Amino acid sequence: AQAVFVVQELTTVRVQDPRVQNEGSWNSYVDYKIFLHTNSKAFTAKTSCVRRRYREFVWLRRQLQKNAGLVPVPELPGKSTFFVGSTDEFIEKRRQGLQQFLEKVVQNVVLLSDSRLHLFLQSQLSVPEIEACVQGQGSQTVTEAILHYAMSNCGWVQEEESRP
User: Fold this and answer.
1) With CB atoms 3.0 to 4.6 Å apart as the test, which of 13, 124, 132, 148 could cross-link to 138 if both were Cys?
2) Superfamily assignment of 11-161 in CATH?
3) pLDDT in tens, 81-121
């Protein structure tokens, strides 16, 4: 008798390494590294690594909600302006919240069918570029944009830099 191995689809998504960009200026913001590792056929690239800021997550959630119809989209951590405690604590709380948000999103079949999600997680296109790409106005298809980013290895440069 032959043993039959059922490959379980696993997707690991991590939100890590918050960094303050443009520190000390009025337009400083924090972005987070999103590391994704999967064997799911839903994803074009099996591993990816991008940096995104909170504002982009807010946009993503709004788009997912629009397209998902009645499917509930997970909540994002709040945009608390009255946070008591240190900035580091706030950033860490937000990081955890963003990770929980993505963990829930990638487990939802309906949300996974939204190509905006894939470009958000697996390319470094900006929000307007993602919109253009999804509407077929970009220079590349969604799959091409993701593969192009995967091949360019931009994602791994960040991996290398953050090692001690």
Assistant:
1) 132
2) Phox-like domain (3.30.1520.10)
3) 665 667 888 899 999 999 999 999 999 999 999 999 999 99
